[in-house]
Amino acid sequence: MADVIDMAQRLQAADNDAAIAAACVPVPRGVSGECNECGDESKRLVAGWCAPCRDARDKVVRTRGTGFYDFGGDE
User: Fold this and answer.
1) CA atoms within 13 A on the CB side of 40
2) How far apart are CA 55 and CA 70, in angstroms?
3) pTM for this prediction
4) Which residues, 6 or more positions from 42, have their beta carbon under 8 angstroms from its beta carbon?
5) What confidence score (pLDDT) does residue 56 get?
6) Euclidean distance between CA atoms 45 and 30, whole angstroms
7) What is the pLDDT of residue 43?
8) CA distances to 40, 41, 71 from 54, in Å
9) Residues facing 41 on adjacent strands
10) CA of 75: how far to CAs of 67, 70, 71, 72, in Å?
11) Nearest Cα residue to 38 out of 50, 26, 21, 56
12) What is the pLDDT along the chain (75 residues), one digit of tens a residue?
């Protein structure tokens, strides 16, 4: 039977695996130009969006119930 230390070691190993997997995600190549969303010039656009617009879009997506924060609503 597993004791508390064994369970903690398994949890730590799972956390390490998740952190390593997240760190291995490739960084998309950016180009300079005008942002499709705000129209400002940027040295690095990814999919046509500058960093502030991408960050704002990611915050909206996370708070609207998709991805990690999806709890199923009233299903």
Assistant:
1) 10
2) 19
3) 0.47
4) 32, 33, 34, 35, 50, 51
5) 81
6) 5
7) 92
8) 13, 14, 24
9) 34
10) 16, 12, 9, 6
11) 50
12) 678 999 999 999 999 999 999 888 888 888 999 999 898 899 999 989 898 888 887 766 555 554 554 444 444
Structure tokens at 17: 């695996």
Q: Using the structure block, give the residue that is written with the tokens 């799972």.
A: 14
* Residue at token pair 């997506």: 61
Residues, the chain, total? Answer: 75
Q: Which two tokens stand for residue 33?
A: 């130009």
As a whole number of angstroms, the distance between CA 18 and CA 41 comes to: 35
